[in-house]
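If you are new to this repository, start here. Below is one unmodified record pulled from the training split, so you can see the exact layout before writing a loader.
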Amino acid sequence: MSGRTIAIGDIHGYLDALNTLLEAIAPEADDTIVALGDFVDRGPDSRAVIERLIELGRQCRLVPILGNHDELLLNVCRGSMYQLGNWLLFGGDATLASYDGRVPDGVPQEHVDFLADCRDWHESERHFFVHGAYEHNRPLERQAWERLRWQSLREHEPLAHCSGKTAIVGHTSQKTGEILDLGFLKCIDTWIYGDGWLTALDVDSGQVWQAGKEGELRE
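And here is the target side for that same chain:
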């Protein structure tokens, strides 16, 4: 497949940062954008972020990975109201506000469908992409979804994967604002919801773009 493969880290409702990255990247129809999950919660514009990602999927090949925050929102939208308290504690209050306080009834079906269609993992010729972590000795199709979605690298730092491919992950926020590069694993959650950046990485060329909360591009 021609075109670039570019991963974007945890967006967490920061639309200005996402728009700045996409303007800098200028994705074309044959590019693949892998969004690593946690599109929602904590930041102010979760609804608009999902709308922008849906639009992006019409411009290029978008591969959205389901993050743990996205999973909580999806479950609430599907009627699992017992998870509402956990979701709000995890930053869902900001997402709730972005839908004018109307969740689940105010969430468009297109948004629910988008989240429902997100993947647990994705792989290319030399890389694979998950939200959280993985078991190094299991093929991707046999991974436990809880580990892929919820496990932090601070809880358990995996070894190189048995496929020999480089892992591109999010979820574990890097408070330095810099990519964690272990060679066999790169974590590009660089703490946009704190004092860091939203990061995009061209996994083949190594080019990096970063943007801040207010939409400023990091030089």
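Two things worth knowing about this chain: The first strand starts at residue 5 and ends at 8. Residues 84-98 form the longest helix (15 residues).
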